[in-house]
Amino acid sequence: MSELKRAGSTWPPTIPVLVSMLAPTPEDFGMPATGEAWREALAHAHEPRRHRWSHEAVRLAGNAVGWWDLTHTTAQSQWPRLEKRFVREYQALVNRVMAGEDLTPRQLLEHDGHRSQAELAERAGQERADRLVDDAGLPHRMNADQGLRSLRAALGRG
Length: 158
What we know:
By secondary structure, this protein is an all-alpha fold.
C-alpha cells in the first residue's frame, strides 16, 4: 500500500483500485505473466517437446495456437492475430488454474467457419472412424498385445 501512496495516487485507494490491487494474478499461482508466457512460447515453438516449460498452461496455449504457425509465420501483420489468440487461450487456462481445475487439454469453443477444409475433413474422418469402432464393439485404444490378440482372433489363429 505504501507503494501506491508513494506513487502519488489517492490514499486511501478507491474501491476499483483496491479491487484491482487485490485481484489474483497468474504469478500468484506459479504461472508466468501473459507477456512472459507469450515470449516463452515464441522462443521454444521450434522444439516444444524438448523444452522444460515454466508452466503446463504455456505449452497448452502454444499448442492451441499451433507450433507450425508460431515458427513459420513471417508476415508482420499476422503476429497480432497470433498473439491475441495465444492470450485468449492462456487466459482461459489461467482462469481454470485459479478455479482449481485440472489442465487436461480441452479447447475453447470455436465456430467451424474458422477451420480449413482439411481440418473439417480430418475431423469428419475421425468421427466416422470412431463410429465404426463403436459399432464393431472395439476398444478405442489397445496396447500391442491386445492388438495382436485381436488380429489373431480375427484370422482364426487365436
